[in-house]
């Protein structure tokens, strides 16, 4: 009888465990939302993006201060680059470049005066940029593919992420 009670207690406690798991991490809704946004962005391009030509990815920035980002913005940019790479696009790793404005704790900020120079140097056809705004319950995001030759937006997607505890933690500035 004691064994049955002990087994029931263990089963009950296991069922009550709500912490992060490897299974939940593997199917992260955060990552899936970002991947889905990239898939939509690629699907709605006004001009086809040549997979053989380089694509630059800028860090997602705070819409209220375009020279600031956060861990959330940097992580989303990394996931955008990952998804485009998975889909066969030629992504330039900006962190390995000397001529990109990289601010410690902020990310790869592509200032407008630098974009034309960078696109010439790397023969990039498209720059993917984005911004986010934090509200009471959601983070609102915009992702754009911009033609490097004339700064024309060739695709854009808006999406939302819930303002969960994890997302709040990612929004906290790492460099204080």
Annotate the secondary structure layout.
Elements: H1 2-16, H2 22-26, H3 29-43, E1 54-57, E2 61-62, H4 71-86, E3 90-91, E4 101-103, E5 107-109, H5 112-122, E6 126-134, E7 138-147, E8 153-162, H6 165-171
Parallel strand pairs: 1-3, 1-6, 2-6
Antiparallel strand pairs: 4-5, 6-7, 7-8
Helix pairs in contact: 3-4
Based on DSSP secondary structure assignment, what is the total number of beta strands? 8
Query: Number of DSSP helices?
Result: 6
DSSP strand content: 15-25%
Q: How far do the termini sit from each other?
A: 57 Å
Identify low-pLDDT runs. Answer: 99-107
Provide the gyration radius in Å. Answer: 20 Å
Shape: globular
The overall average pLDDT, rounded, is 82
SSE sequence, one letter per element: HHHEEHEEEHEEEH
DSSP helix fraction: 25-40%
Q: Main sheet? A: 6 strands, mixed
Which class do the helix and strand fractions yield?
A: alpha/beta
Describe this structure in words.
The structure is a single chain. This protein has six helices and eight strands; from the N terminus they run αααββαβββαβββα. Helix 3 (29-43) crosses helix 4. Helix content is 39%, strand content 24%. A hairpin with a 5-residue loop joins strand 7 and strand 8. The protein has helices at residues 2-16, 22-26, 29-43, 71-86, 112-122, 165-171, and strands spanning 54-57, 61-62, 90-91, 101-103, 107-109, 126-134, 138-147, 153-162. With 176 residues, it is α/β, with parallel strands linked by helices. The strands form two sheets. Strands 1, 2, 3, 6, 7 and 8 form a six-stranded mixed sheet that branches. Mean pLDDT is 82; it is low at 99-107. The radius of gyration is 20 Å and the shape is globular.
């Amino acid at each position: 009888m004691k064994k049955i009670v002990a087994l029931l207690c263990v089963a009950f406690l296991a069922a009550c465990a709500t912490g992060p798991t490897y299974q939940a991490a593997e199917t992260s809704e955060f990552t899936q939302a970002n991947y889905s946004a990239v898939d939509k962005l690629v699907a709605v391009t006004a001009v086809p993006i040549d997979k053989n030509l380089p694509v630059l990815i800028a860090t997602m920035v705070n819409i209220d201060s375009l020279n600031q980002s956060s861990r959330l913005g940097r992580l989303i940019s990394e996931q955008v680059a990952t998804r485009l790479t998975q889909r066969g696009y030629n992504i330039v790793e900006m962190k390995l470049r000397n001529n990109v404005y990289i601010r410690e704790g902020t990310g790869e900020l592509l200032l407008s005066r630098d974009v034309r120079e960078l696109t010439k140097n790397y023969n990039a056809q498209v720059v993917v940029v984005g911004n986010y705004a934090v509200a009471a319950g959601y983070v609102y995001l915009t992702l754009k593919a911009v033609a490097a030759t004339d700064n024309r937006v060739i695709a854009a997607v808006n999406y939302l992420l819930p303002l969960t505890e994890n997302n709040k933690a990612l929004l906290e500035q790492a460099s204080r």
